[in-house]
Specification:
This protein has 181 residues and is α+β, with helices and mostly antiparallel strands. It has nine helices and nine strands. The strands form four sheets. The protein has a three-stranded antiparallel sheet with strand order 1-2-3. Strand 5 and strand 6 form a beta hairpin. The longest helix is centred in the middle third of the chain and has 10 residues.
């Protein structure tokens, strides 16, 4: 099952899909949904805003993924409980095309869970907030080949297979990449 949330989603490994996941019924939750409101103060009691910045180098804004993920955990939300993979929305589209799960670098750097200096998920954040790290797939850089479009998609669209290349998925990164040189 694919469970969408704001600009990320979870994949639940509940049936066979293009590779290992099935996406029968998406659950949409808007990031401004009052029932899912994020309380940044409760997170800051465990790990300060300053420490988050020191660990990740990211701008700390409560609309970013870490705050929503932590809120889902506190609420014991079904998305959090049943999700096996965390994908940003751009990565979800790549998953639909290829069946491969990755998180693209420029988008994940704004998640406030990725250590930009060391190029890795920041273990101390996961440990302090008791968040599962194993739901996060590998990071892929813009310009890298993800895979080819799956045979199932090619057959359905009646097209030849072709490679799917990871874009700069963060909106600002894509804008910069699109500037004529």
């Amino acid at each position: 099952m694919v469970i969408y949330y704001r600009t990320f989603c979870f994949l639940a490994n509940n049936a066979p899909g293009p590779h290992t996941y099935k996406c029968p019924i998406p659950i949409f939750i808007h990031y401004r949904d009052e029932k899912r409101k994020v309380d940044a103060r409760s997170l800051y009691k465990i790990i300060s805003r300053e420490e988050l910045f020191e660990l990740t180098g990211a701008t700390i804004i409560p609309l970013f993924d870490l705050f929503h993920l932590y809120s889902l955990k506190l609420q014991n939300a079904p998305e959090f409980v049943n999700g096996d993979k965390f994908l940003t929305m751009p990565d979800l589209f790549n998953y639909f095309l290829t069946g491969r799960t990755y998180n693209e670098y420029t988008r994940i750097t704004t998640s406030i869970m990725y250590n930009q200096k060391e190029g890795r998920w920041e273990d101390r954040i996961f440990e302090k907030l008791d968040l599962p790290k194993d739901i996060f797939p590998d990071i892929i850089k813009p310009g890298e080949k993800i895979d080819n479009i799956s045979n199932k998609v090619c057959s359905e669209l009646e097209i030849e297979t072709m490679p799917v290349i990871a874009p700069a998925a963060h909106d600002t990164s894509s804008a910069v990449a699109g500037i004529p040189v």
